[in-house]
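ugh finaly. both done.
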Amino acid sequence: MAVRGDNRAEWQQARVDMAAILRWSARIGFHEGVCNHYTVMLAPDRFLINPHNMHWSKATASRLIVIDDKGDTVEGEGRPAKTGFNIHTRVHLNSGRKVVLHTHMPYATALACTKGGRLMMTHQNAARFYDIVAYDEGFNGFATATEEGDRMTRQLGDKRVLFLGNHGVIVTGDTIMDAFDDLYYLERACQVQVLAMSTGRELSLIPENLAPALRDFGTRHENAGLFLSAIKEILDEEEPAYSS
């Protein structure tokens, strides 16, 4: 099915940006085999997603596929992971979020695998997520049906980030750059916390009254755009095929 009218340039830009963050995610160890999924809701019944057989380090704009709300591929070659369709389309449709990123990145997943694990306000990177994180402690096995995506969305509620107990994390956003910026700094915050916990010393927490300002700092969106641009600048020099 052809791209719809005026959306052509927007959809192509989404492809390029998605390929960039997939490749970068592979570079920094956020990937897991050919599993995990990034999606962008292009229209109420169209979702850009990485095909199941593509390693993230080999992502290109043209290899990404578009699926419909039934999971059928309508643009490109290949198919999505069944769990990707079941989780992502339901989060998009139920929450209205345009971008959904799901990974098993090591440090965030490590916290999700601790009993009662919570992201603590131990570092300024953690404070970026003050009061925007939800926790799902009801691990239910593989997401083999859309009902599991519905259940996850209920757990997410009005938050942007969901820790999936015994599983991984979901980060949502309205733009690719903002969602990936959150994903990156979430892992950095979790890394610092896990390392601090490993000392066996009591964690030092940021005073709660400072957290909202650390979360809502004025250049947050600008910084996200600069980060994505810097990633693409490196890829343009070292792996230019990503944008093809």
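ok and the 2nd:
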Amino acid sequence: MHFPVDHCYGILVEQTKKPFILGLGGTTNPESSTEQALAIALQAAADNGAETELFGSDRLMALPHYRSDPAGLNQTGKDLVELVRRADGLILSSPGYHGTVSGLVKNAIDYIEETSADDRIYLDGLPIGLIVTAYGWQAVGSTLAALRSIVHSLRGWPTPLGVGINASGGIFGEGICTDAGVNEQLKLVAQQVMHRA
């Protein structure tokens, strides 16, 4: 760690950098349970000292289908790749669609392929928090397992806690979750990402 000297007072000052946590996920609806859960987790990371950014609904829909061709990257795709390169940790949030990750979220994750020639390949060594929402429990477990598998294949480290949420009871509204247990889990997954970032 670098400790520059403050020449005015002759003391050592610890130079610290806020970790940058990227939140990636959502649905076509910016008010979805998936995106609201992600926003709550990112707020918890920010409250613990992180710089955060949410790459959600509007930008997810602006991404063309990923293809491994630089000509296929629009500005939104280029922005996503740069955010991934900057990130000290990620929180991924997907709805469970037909038992697995939604196509919209998977398409965004596929853009991480653009980092395959970087010094830090893919998500190598990064802590990755996972959130899954579904209208019923069946899709929660299989979607969470699919996200863990994707993160492992991208060399990331899924946090011990993955948050699975049965949103069928309408527990999200106006950025607030009315289920205290879910709120605590969203905060905890953010803390686990922060701890490792």
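summary for the 2nd one i guess: Confidence is low (pLDDT under 50) at residues 1-9.
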